[in-house]
Amino acid sequence: MAEGFGQYVEKTSTTKRMRVLLKKITESQIKDPEDLMLIIMENLKEDSIYPEVGKFYTFVYNPKTPNIEYDQHPLIACVELNSWGFRGLNFHWRKHRNYTWPEVAGKLYKIQYNELDEMLSIPYAKFRLNK
Q1: How far is CA 5 from CA 15, 53, 57, in A?
Q2: Are 121 and 8 in contact (CB under 8 A)?
Q3: Nearest Cα residue to 111 out of 14, 7, 1
Q4: In the structure, what pLDDT confidence band is assigned to residue 14 with cuts at 50, 70 and 90?
Q5: In contact, 73 and 37? CB cutoff 8 Å
Q6: For residue 72, what are the domain limits?
Q7: Binning pLDDT at 50, 70 and 90, where does residue 4 land?
Q8: Cα–chain-centroid distance for residue 31?
Q9: How far apart are CA 52 and CA 35, in angstroms?
């Protein structure tokens, strides 16, 4: 967990679901990004199949492109929809990435604008190299 995480939770939680989520994460003392993502998914519940431009999401992503570095647990702002997938600003990397429909595992979890700070405080990004 990031240093000071528990203090951050108490001071700035903006929604009930974020307070509940951050309390569970803090109390569990889990540090593994995979386990953190599981807690996030359990608490946020699947929300939508397709993103909307201008909205924020997190999800599990498993790309098909070999030898590409990727974030398996992106937190994005959707900026474009296409027939092949969507484009989003990945907040963990601070750059735009393309996400193809078949490689999104399950549904997307919608994040409200006022929940972004809390989500960014959770160290659940999982950077990998697709082999």
Answers
A1: 17, 30, 22
A2: yes
A3: 14
A4: confident
A5: yes
A6: 5-129
A7: very low
A8: 15
A9: 27
- Residue 25's DSSP bridge partners are none
Please provide residue 64's backbone torsions phi and psi, each rounded to the nearest 5 degrees.
Answer: -95, -20
Residue with tokens 């203090």: 7
pLDDT tops 60 at residue 43: yes
Distances (CA, A) of 16 to 76, 96, 112, 120: 21, 30, 12, 17
- For β-strands 104-111 and 127-129, DSSP reports them as unpaired
**Are 85 and 59 within 8 A, CB to CB?**
no
Spacing of C-alpha 125 from chain mean position? 7
Split into its structural domains, the chain has a count of 1
Q: Does 11 score more than 70 pLDDT? A: no
